[in-house]
Specification:
Length: 123
């Protein structure tokens, strides 16, 4: 059974930085395409970033381009989301999801989801 968990969330001020990580204890993440998603209170789930297992291609939501960076640390078996210049509207619960595919896919096709971790940005 694939198990993984998000870590690194917390509360920060507007303009600060935070890194959230997706870590697996039972699977090697570099063989999976990994997506980061978030859900803010009262809003729909939003795809934030994704890194594919195939060619390592990366996609970002327009709302985070230039501020967020997704990357793999294969030595640590993590996929990290570095978030800079955080805004209040970045507040939400952040989820890591993985799919046994060589490319990023729509949310409904992801195989496993982590429990999520809260990120709160205050003004």
């Amino acid at each position: 059974q694939v198990q993984f968990v998000e870590s690194g969330g917390g509360s920060v001020q507007f303009g600060e930085s935070l890194t959230v990580s997706c870590t697996s204890s039972g699977s090697t993440l570099r063989y999976w395409s990994v997506g980061w998603f978030r859900r803010a209170p009262g809003k729909e789930r939003e795809g934030v970033a994704c890194i594919s297992a195939g060619d390592g291609s990366i996609t970002y939501a327009d709302s985070v381009k230039g501020r967020f960076t997704i990357s793999r640390d294969n030595a640590k078996n993590t996929v990290d989301l570095q978030m800079n210049s955080l805004k209040v509207e970045d507040t939400g619960r952040y989820y890591c999801a993985i799919v046994a595919a060589g490319m990023c896919v729509i949310p409904e096709w992801y195989d496993y989801w982590g429990p999520g971790i809260q990120v709160t940005v205050s003004s």
